[in-house]
Amino acid sequence: MDTQKQINRIDETIVEIEQENNIAAGITQTEIKNTLSTHLSKQPTKEEAVQETVRELLKEEDVDQPAQHLYELVIVDLFCGAAGFSTGMIMGIADHYSHIIADEKGIPESEVSYDHPEVQDWFSNNIYLAGVNHEESACRTFRKNHEWARVHNSKVQSLHPPDSVNGLEVDILIAGPSCQPYSKASGGKTDSDQKRMSPFHVLHWLQLLQPTQFMLENVTGFQKLGGWDEDGNMIRDGSMFEQWKSTIENGFGYSVKSEVLHSHNHGDAQSRKRLFIMGRWNYQPEFPEPTHSKTGKEPGMMAYRSAKEIIDWDDHGESIWNRSNPLCLNTNRKMAKGIKEFGMESLHPYADVLSELTPEKIKEMKENAVPVSKAEEEAANRDDPFLVEVPKEEGDPHLILSANEFNAGICSTYTEREDQEPRVRDPNRPLMTIPATKNPARIEQPFLIKYYGKSAEADVNKSMPTITTKSSMGLIIPELYPWGVDIRHRLLKPREAARAQGFPESYEFATEKKTTKRKLIGNAVPINTARALSRKLLEPTDAPTFNKFKGGGQSTTSVQAQKNEAGS
Fold it and tell me: Does residue 246 share a domain with residue 152?
């Protein structure tokens, strides 16, 4: 059945070519079937077999690039990773071609979406997408989510560019070269010549493929590139970047524009700042306008998406007091700072205690934890912090950082109603009777802590900080009990990081290793930002270039616009 579907597709393509070129090739479905069968046994993929079938059947006709007619768009993704850039690009294509897809697939336009099976089928028949990456886990992930794409497990510099698309003409080239050599986080220092040269390999691909338009993503530091000194440190005078850009503009004839975009301005739940460079052949590049803002109160704007949208709130994490290996002092100080930043003022003394707790001190406190039945007596007779051991129905006893004479006044009591604020006891009064329950009286404002950068804490009501390739963020949930405070801690999960990057919930990462997943996710281009760029790239602008007027062989008028013009 699949073979017959491809035969019909080839037949329809040949009919279109005959009509456009005013020829009559007279090719029957039997000829198509026999030729396709031969190429299916020779070519590495089914799609390349289809291309070669069209080429062979029309080789006697005066038709330029007959296999090109199989596709609306041919796209190449260099350094493709887990296909974040490609996924956003494809979503933008679905937006741009929505009424065409709806008409051809017989579905309502409102149902046209990336995940729809009929839309995926339309992609497979109309988009030729080639990804290139040297890491096997990235290639497996790309193939798993885009089965119809051609993925080359190769270094970019090791593959002959035209071979990546089987000789087709390329409409769009996108690339996300290594950012490490230009990143502030790495100090602009790397011993890898391959990483240093990755943006310069893009020049070779632009020269040989001559795509109609291209986009490149990198850290903002790439604009400062001036080479490297003898010690491997990046020179930040921007001279080499300007040479790179001049080669594209003056050597290859593109109109080029660069802009720094913030991903939360375009619908990603993350405040990631990246440099995007756009080049077009026939039109001046233009970047998308923001669709989101801090308040969302401006006309046509939505509020920034927040970290709390992507967090799995069913998982509060593990008590920091019950860990077999207590957290380090630096992490405790980050949590203490967050408690002071986001918690009520009465929690500040607890934060002061936490900021001085070393792993050794916590182990000592655990060994000398006080049974809940003796908590009142202990609080009355000591002035140092201690842990209260509370029985649990299952598992290890629950440990709570207790109130005492130093901070007894901040020990919250239980309330009768959910909307009632916890009462604060007088430090001169005895502790109340403490029920042996595992449920907190109140969950305080959760927050995030970062294991990188200058600021330690982050508000879950704001956009997620930049997702990195490592376990770089933790979720902290303080819980108040009648006898003290528990603090829940866990690292953000790969799936939560993927949501912050905009990956669909259905997106699968083809590895069981969390470290590999985090690397794939952290290196990706934010999906919604790429989607916004894709929509903009597919539209003609009001500023054509000289190439447009002189009749350059490449056209950037969208296929949708061409069809609209043909029908008018």
Answer: yes
